[in-house]
Amino acid sequence: MVKAVGSQESIHIYSDPTFVQLSGGSMNKLHKPGDEVPASGVYRVTHNPQHEKAHKVTCIKGTAFPPCRDCEHPRFVLVYAAHHIANHKHFRTW
Ligand SMILES: [Zn+2]
What we know:
Strand order of the largest sheet: 1-4-2-3
Order of helices and strands: HEEEE
Bound molecules: zinc ion
Radius of gyration: 15 Å
Largest sheet: 4 strands, antiparallel
Number of domains: 1
Distance between the termini: 46 Å
Helix content: under 10%
Low-confidence stretches: 4-23
């Protein structure tokens, strides 16, 4: 039997000791299009619910959160931070 992924997913990943700890309460901060991405990782995006439900995206630190093509107010919240592999000390080769 296949177990559906539900609302417990976020509880599971927050309790995962391997996730990257962030200082300053970054985990709950809302970001707008044009803001700089504070940490690479998975973000939950909320839109105007009339055109799209909340979903997840991967954003890269130092880039800007993009605008939505279809609504004025997408909002991004960090769910799970993880170093981009190009910036991880064990994989950096240059
Ligand atoms: Zn939208």
